[in-house]
Design brief:
alpha+beta, Cathepsin D, subunit A, domain 1, 10 helices, 30 strands, about 30% strand
Length: about 525
């Protein structure tokens, strides 16, 4: 007798034959004027230096989140690069980090797999017909759409539209739909190079894809080799890929070893840092490192000997990670780069100042300053806030959240500021209320939301009486139909449904709209409006 299987059961059977691929999808590859500790360098003379030409899985004592994008997908899987699957990856990881930070029940791997299965089943039903339509259009010679955003790698459509490394020079207006420059950056998974830093002790921050990660360049070792580091204010360990780490990264991955650094001293102390199913095994080591023109001799960092595919995949665009949370969060017990710079008298204060760039702005203004705040980036005064976290995160009191002029009930809480996270995670009730206040917004029933790509609604956050408003473009995570960038978009605000009344997690979607600074000596956070 013939057995008829439903599409969902067939899907389960297929997934059962390729657990490694599924794990890869699930776990792919972060009031008043401020007082002296945050004084602007415009009023402080710093020694001149030569200036150079960052979803969530946490280890027990350290957090890290990798921007999720089509880095290492199996080209035989038609859904491996689907943006809805990427959204679910972001939601899964962000929920886990949100739960860890707020001491809420942490989603299990089984729960996250179930969420991916549910999302994948929906994509099979809703998206595949769209893909077939796009294929038919392509066969008919229609090349006017941006359908490559949904194409799989083997279609050879991704990257058809090339961008210069410096990006577009034209600002894309708000309310005109999902920015085409962001869509193109996502298609190619390109890196938008950093601009020139505006002051000493500063490095530019390159932008990964459509603002999903931020990279800084450092130099390590006796040969002064260049390494690209993911900047993460939500973790405190700094490590790079080791030359003995077999199968770690593609041909473009820079690795550290005795062959390119005679000053490298690898120790016997070995640590394994686990991030969900992803992990790295590393040895503690010392070597020289130059950060924003400042050289540290014998800096303690990690050199990996083994990386799971979530870190060592061939398409991962960075060579290591720079953790800039409080040093108390470090798994290896070592000091963060800024604390080491301060202890070595390279900087006057252990301050880090961030400005995160936005591809849609047309020029990348992103940069990171070590030891001071760049006053030229701030409009008015930087606002001083006491850190609420006892565990090394950067967390502030949140007074209120508004959509336009409408206050969101129950939004008074705390918020963790994390450069390594792309999305905003809100408690379920507040996430629902935000989208209820946006015309045309809907819940997808899985922690995500959709809203019109043309929305002009702005989300604002008030901390200790100071309000910061998000650009409406930053509410848009991706278009749901790449043929219509003025249609429906996926929201950058997701719900944390872990129970309780946990705080908020504010990632790059918010942080692109402010100047963000941290001071590990005074345990304070600075926020300012951008110039």
């Amino acid at each position: 007798m013939a057995v008829i299987q439903s599409p969902f059961l067939r899907l389960i059977a297929v997934l059962a034959t390729m657990p490694a691929l599924f794990d890869q999808l699930l776990f792919p590859d972060a009031s008043g004027a401020l007082a002296a500790p945050f004084d602007s360098p415009n009023n402080t003379t710093l020694p001149g230096v030569q200036e150079p030409s960052f979803d969530v899985y946490l280890s027990p004592s350290a957090g890290i989140q990798l921007p999720l994008a089509p880095r290492d997908a199996d080209e035989s899987d038609t859904l491996a690069e689907n943006p809805w699957m990427h959204l679910q990856q972001h939601i899964n990881h962000a929920k886990r980090r949100h739960a860890q930070i707020n001491d809420l029940p942490v989603p299990t791997d089984d729960e996250l797999r179930a969420a991916m299965l549910k999302r994948r089943s929906w994509v099979e039903k809703e998206w595949l017909p769209l893909q077939r339509r796009d294929a038919a259009d392509a066969k008919a010679g229609d090349s006017s759409s941006l359908s490559s955003y949904f194409a799989r790698s083997s279609d050879k459509m991704i990257g058809m539209v090339r961008r210069s490394s410096s990006g577009s020079n034209q600002l894309e207006a708000r309310g005109n739909g999902y920015p085409s420059s962001e869509a193109k950056a996502a298609q190619q998974h390109s890196t938008t190079n950093a601009g020139s830093p505006s002051m000493s002790h500063t490095s530019g921050l390159s932008i990964e894809a459509n603002d999903v990660g931020y990279f800084v360049q450092v130099h390590i070792g006796s040969n002064n080799a260049k390494f690209t580091m993911l900047v993460d204010s939500g973790s405190a360990d700094t490590w790079v890929t080791g030359s003995n780490c077999n199968g770690c990264g593609g041909s473009n991955r820079n690795k550290l070893g005795s062959s390119n650094s005679k000053s490298l001293n690898i120790q016997n102390d070995q640590f394994k840092i686990s991030y969900g199913t992803g992990s790295v095994t590393l040895n503690k080591a010392t070597d020289s490192i130059t950060i924003a023109g400042m050289k540290l001799d014998n800096y303690n960092l990690g050199v990996t000997t083994k990386e799971s595919s979530q870190f060592g995949g061939s398409k991962i665009p960075f060579d290591g990670l720079m953790g800039l949370a409080g040093s108390s969060l470090s798994t290896t017990g070592e000091k963060t780069p800024i604390d080491a710079l301060f202890d070595s008298n390279k900087v006057d204060q252990p301050i880090v100042g961030y400005r995160l760039g936005r591809v849609a702005d047309g020029s990348n203004k992103g940069q990171i300053t070590f030891g001071a705040v760049d006053g030229s980036q701030v409009s008015g005064s930087l606002h001083e806030l006491d850190n609420q976290s006892k565990n090394g995160y950067w967390e502030v009191k949140l007074d209120n959240v508004k959509v336009g002029s409408k206050s969101i009930s129950g939004s008074s809480s705390t918020a963790t500021l994390d450069t390594g996270t792309s999305l905003i995670v809100a408690p379920q009730a507040q996430a629902d209320a935000i989208h209820d206040a946006i015309d045309g917004a809907k819940s997808d029933g899985q922690g995500g939301y959709t809203l019109p790509c043309t929305t002009n609604q702005q989300l604002s956050f008030t901390f200790s009486g100071q309000t910061y408003t998000m650009d409406s473009r930053d509410l848009l995570f991706s278009p749901s139909d790449s043929n219509n960038l003025q249609g429906t978009c996926v929201s950058a605000v997701s719900a944390g449904d872990n129970g309780g009344n946990g705080g908020w997690l504010l990632g790059a979607a918010f942080l692109k709209n402010v100047y963000f600074a941290t001071n590990s000596k005074t345990n304070q956070i600075g926020l300012g409006k951008l110039n």
